[in-house]
């Protein structure tokens, strides 16, 4: 687990982004706003976040595999967040009915190459592919499979993309059945942020 400040200017509000697998901070590059933004990635193992106590309001935005990671992290470290937003992910990311079938996740790991990752990025709706460490990202996928379903977490808003080609929309709908009153469907790919270019629009 690695954390990087995307914006840090002494704001009263903080957004902590739990990112998806292998895409880095690129999906969020165009988002603007006055908030401080801490980006967290790499779900091979978990660790503590920096001290967040100085912020008046702390919001979690969990994206893709970061949603399941958020559930596990909160179970282990507590919940410091005033609001929690989920985007195109579930608490069971490597599960056939509520995420991606684990055999497909394993196949992605086994066949991972720069070429296959570039295809993945196109399917996700990215314009390009970030640099990738093949061995580390294989290990991350296998850690997600082995970790399994996260404990239940209540989110304040859940964004799901109708045109998601990474996380199956039907599986996401089933996964969030108990929180369906918080779900908002959008006509977007897996990486949906281009159409709403401010942080506040997602919160």
UniProtKB/TrEMBL annotation:
Keyword terms: Membrane, Transmembrane, Transmembrane helix
Domain of life: Bacteria
Pfam families reported for this sequence: BioG
Stretches that traverse the bilayer: 12-35, 55-75
KW Plastid (keyword) present: no
InterPro entries: AB_hydrolase_fold, BioG
Keyword Transmembrane helix: yes
Protein name (database record): DUF452 family protein
Organism: Donghicola mangrovi
């Amino acid at each position: 687990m690695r954390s990087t400040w995307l914006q840090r200017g002494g704001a009263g509000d903080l957004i902590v982004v739990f990112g998806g697998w292998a895409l880095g901070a690129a999906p969020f590059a165009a988002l603007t706003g006055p908030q401080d933004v801490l980006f967290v990635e790499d779900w091979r193992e978990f660790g503590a976040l920096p001290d967040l106590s100085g912020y008046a309001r702390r919001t979690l935005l969990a994206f893709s595999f970061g949603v399941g990671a958020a559930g596990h992290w909160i179970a282990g470290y507590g919940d410091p967040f005033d609001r929690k937003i989920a985007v195109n992910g579930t608490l069971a990311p490597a599960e056939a009915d509520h995420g991606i079938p684990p055999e497909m996740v394993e196949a992605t790991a086994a066949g991972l190459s720069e070429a296959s990752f570039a295809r993945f990025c196109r399917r996700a709706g990215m314009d390009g592919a970030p640099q990738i460490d093949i061995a580390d990202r294989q290990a991350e996928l296998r850690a997600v499979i082995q970790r399994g379903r996260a404990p239940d977490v209540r989110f304040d808003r859940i964004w799901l993309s109708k045109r998601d080609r990474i996380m199956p929309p039907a599986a996401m709908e089933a996964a969030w059945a108990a929180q369906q009153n918080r779900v908002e469907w959008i006509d977007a790919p897996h990486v949906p942020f281009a159409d709403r270019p401010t942080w506040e629009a997602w919160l």
